[in-house]
Amino acid sequence: MPLVELVIILVVVGVVLWLINSFIPMQATIKRILNAVVIIIVILWILSVFGIIDNLDTIRIGN
């Protein structure tokens, strides 16, 4: 994946998260949880893109 695409995706995710945090009324606790989940997913995705962790398709949750 080219670096430009990676940066564009990160900017889009950041803007969407900012829009959700700014304009959708939620409790602060829910906002913190949402931010943490999005950040964890983005970090895992970036690690997968750079090949630091193997393909995320092999990770199974549940049965």
Structural account:
By secondary structure, this protein is mainly α. It has a domain at 26-56. It contains two helices and no strands. It has helices spanning 3-23, 28-49. Helix 1 (3-23) runs antiparallel to helix 2 (28-49).
Largest beta-sheet characterization: none
First-to-last CA distance: 31 Å
Assembly state (oligomeric): single chain
- Structural shape: flat
Radius of gyration, taken over Cα atoms and rounded to an integer in Å:
14 Å
Helix-strand category: mainly alpha
Low-confidence stretches: none
Round the mean pLDDT to the nearest integer and report it.
89
Number of strands: 0
Share of residues in helices: 55-70%
Beta-strand content bin = under 5%
SSE topology string = HH
Give me the number of helical elements: 2
Descriptive tags:
single chain, flat, 2 helices, 63 residues, mainly alpha
List the helices and strands and how they pair.
Blueprint: H1 3-23, H2 28-49
Short account of what is shown:
By secondary structure, the chain is mainly alpha-helical.
